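User: Okay, second chain of the day. Same drill as before: sequence in, structure tokens out.
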Amino acid sequence: MHMFPITNAPLLNTKIILVVVAILVAGLAFWFGRSDGYTAGYAQAQADATALQEESVRKAVADAAKSTNPFQAVNPLEGVEANPFEKVKKVLNPFEN
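Assistant: Same drill. Structure tokens below.
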């Protein structure tokens, strides 16, 4: 029968204890980090949602104000030339300077 030598037994127990302690420390660090991260992430998500709602309300109010104000209407004839054929006539007529 082959057993561990008695001289290595305290060293083996020390390694097992260190591994168990390391696993416990890592587990506690994960749990605390997750709980703090979840709380901070939830608060950030609430703030983002509130800001998004406020911005959408502000945009809706601005759009409604623009559509009901007749003085801010866009001129549909803006940029239209009075007589576009004058320009074409000058380009196509080689005798006119």
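Residues 16 and 43 are 41 Å apart (CA to CA).

User: Thanks, on to the next one.
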